Amino acid sequence: MSRTVSSWILSSARNSIVLRGKGRLYSIYIPNRNKIKWKLVFSKTCLYPAGSCSLDNIFSLRKAFRHTSTEEEHFSFQLSPSQINDILRAGELSHKILNLSGKNANSVLRFESNQLASNSPIEDRRSAATCLQTTGMMFGVFDGHAGSACAQAVSERLLHYIAVSLMSRRTLEEIELAVECMKPALPILQWHKHPNDVEYQEITSQYFENLRVYWQHLLDLDTEPGFSLEEAMVCAFKRLDSDISLEVQAPQENELMRNIALQVAFSGATACVAHVDGLHLHVANTGDCRAILGVHEEDGTWSTLPLTRDHNAFDEFEIRRLKREHPRSEEKTLFVNDRLLGILMPSRAFGDVQLKWSKELQHSILENSCDVEALNIYQYVPPNYHTPPYLTAEPEVTYHKLRSKDKFLVIASDGLWEMLSNEQVVKLVAGHLTELNMQKPQLAFEKPVNLGYMHSLLLQRKNRGIASLDQNIATHLIRHAIGSNEYGEVDQEKLAAMLTLPEDLARMYRDDITVTVVYFNSETIENYYGNN
């Protein structure tokens, strides 16, 4: 995810969208009874943020129909409803917990996930897995910046580090003995992946060796590891970030592996991971991904329960933390233009060694590397870089004991939360649940009904016979995030326009979006309380 582009404001009206930013960049709706059609008008007087777009690339796209003009370039984009659905549903992933014994003892009923790219390639990643040597399931969302390398590495490795941190000494000894004797080791995780999820196949062996070094360290402790779940998650986050830093400093003869290590360390990623085991829900967060619970109250209304805080310049706790960790002389330069040292939006993240290492170490590593420009490594030392590290991957961990009224957990990258509030997300998920049951939810935070809203509801009901409901709730959320009008209903023209923005422009109006929704089994949760 690119975090260097200025904030842009998206406002919609009934028959047009106006995209406002630096300079003049806007779109005009072209009425057409048969097809969804928008015209984008790009003024050549626009002062674009550095590196944000290339007009030469935009004009060459096959999607665009060019009309020559001395002052403006005009583009028309068309998408049918089925094409819109194909784009939105391409990254769908869902998994239902099997009920093999007739009794579902897992408090997770099912989960649904999806992604929509803004960057090319997408910089977000996601993970979901069942713990095989301990109990519970884990779900993670990872938001990359300055490239996808760090998010990719963290999505592959972090759940393993957490799982190992939770294992007993006996289990760790069994795994170590099997590896030492070159015998098959006990599997640690059962992954639940999308067919298109990628892996760093070339560096898997090195990742495993460093994971092994970690569990050997745990075995070297004088006592049983015995971490609490909170301690295990904190230790795993910090250890992985340390390994990312050390791997790029270690001598490496294989150029490909060396380059991957460089890209991982010099890019960055925020992370939000949930661990669910029976009634026990732990959420570890570093950065500005977010997790919330949807709660169905006894009176039939829905409420939200935030489980994370966004770690950025808008959080007073983060500001105070950083001020405690650095001299008073740096108070005014820690956050510049609402960014850490004027560079980074999140104040906690994996990787980003250029905000953790000394200037000397950075220079030493990059000086001995190959062409860093070819690897798209961002080299910049801010003017007020005096007392590193300024960035940490240490997470905040929240514990919540599940209740039967806790119906679902939503974990998403900030691309969703920039478009929808916590309350809107819960309202949409609750509405989707009841829509599937042919019911309408009663929401505590629903706005008073007005004529415009009633008109929108009537149109929605009229169109139900034509447009099928998204079966995947994550798709439903993404559709509303980028296509909702002022009444909270999806505007097909706006949705098409947002999906057909050229790659170089899309990031100005929407970020990569990754969403995972975990549904809880209320009956199982009630049984836990009954049995106890």
TrEMBL record:
<feature type="domain" description="PPM-type phosphatase">
    <location>
        <begin position="108"/>
        <end position="520"/>
    </location>
</feature>
<dbReference type="InterPro" id="IPR036457">
    <property type="entry name" value="PPM-type-like_dom_sf"/>
</dbReference>
<dbReference type="GO" id="GO:0046872">
    <property type="term" value="F:metal ion binding"/>
</dbReference>
<keyword id="KW-0479">Metal-binding</keyword>
<dbReference type="Pfam" id="PF00481">
    <property type="entry name" value="PP2C"/>
</dbReference>
<keyword id="KW-0378">Hydrolase</keyword>
<keyword id="KW-0904">Protein phosphatase</keyword>
<dbReference type="GO" id="GO:0004741">
    <property type="term" value="F:[pyruvate dehydrogenase (acetyl-transferring)]-phosphatase activity"/>
</dbReference>
<dbReference type="InterPro" id="IPR000222">
    <property type="entry name" value="PP2C_BS"/>
</dbReference>
<dbReference type="InterPro" id="IPR015655">
    <property type="entry name" value="PP2C"/>
</dbReference>
<dbReference type="GO" id="GO:0005739">
    <property type="term" value="C:mitochondrion"/>
</dbReference>
<dbReference type="InterPro" id="IPR001932">
    <property type="entry name" value="PPM-type_phosphatase-like_dom"/>
</dbReference>
<comment type="similarity">
    <text>Belongs to the PP2C family.</text>
</comment>
<protein>
    <submittedName>
        <fullName>PDP2 phosphatase</fullName>
    </submittedName>
</protein>
